[in-house]
Specification:
- There is one protein chain.
- With 271 residues, the protein is α/β, with parallel strands linked by helices.
- It has a single domain (5-268), classed as Metal-dependent hydrolases (TIM Barrel, Alpha-Beta Barrel).
- The protein is 39% helix and 15% strand.
- The two termini are 19 Å apart.
Amino acid sequence: MPAAIIDAWMQITTPRLAAEPWMAPLLRWTGQSADALLPDAPATLAAMDEAGVETALISAWTGPTGVLISNDETAENAARSGGRLRAVMSVDLNDPMGAVREIRKRAGEGFVGVRALPWLWGLPPNDRRFYPIYAACIDAGLPFCTQIGHTGPLRTSEYGRLIPYLEDALLDFPELVVVGGHTGFPWIDEVATLMHKFPNFYVDTSAYVLHRLPPGLVQLMKNEGKTRVLFGSNWPMLTPARCLKGLDALNLDEETADLFLRENARRVFNL
């Protein structure tokens, strides 16, 4: 296992996010209470140390009901981490010019990506409200991070379908770097199709323990997708140590394991 793993999807959850009613399935599946989803920066760093994670990307969350984890809160947690936590911003899709200005501002403050979740907004990624965000990401040189595949929270999974929704966005913005979180299950064939078609499309394994990764994704990791898959945990819903327990069973060679656990994320996020 590489000595300096990068976790591509974490968040330091606020009470605002933990109290959302659509969080109930996640709490049930992980056997946690809402209070357990409220770590601080030191607890997050301790969880990283347990798993050999050197650097993690922590995400802000904004949805149509308001800010659930603010960019300021995310920046403050990153600032207290000695460089080990790197901030991913969120923006308000209903305020396109405000979002563009926020991306420009935060890109100059060390944020390494932008995340928006279609299921949270109730909008597919080819909706017009995403398009100013994509253009701003390209201008700022930042990847756009999103969720693909089924939705664990009590919201529709429809907008996690890659074809036609995300494919349309990639066709319209060929320069856009996209990182699709949570593997894309059950549409792994669509994940493979987009990997073949778009050189700037990546996937992370957040929200999955490694021994439960979709077999089709594991095959991609070992072959033509070895430079396209990033490790992620989705802390605090899952700890990185719990996610990594099944690493040996994947039977990755040394090069593929290093790409998956560190180098792909380092390259995509310019870490």
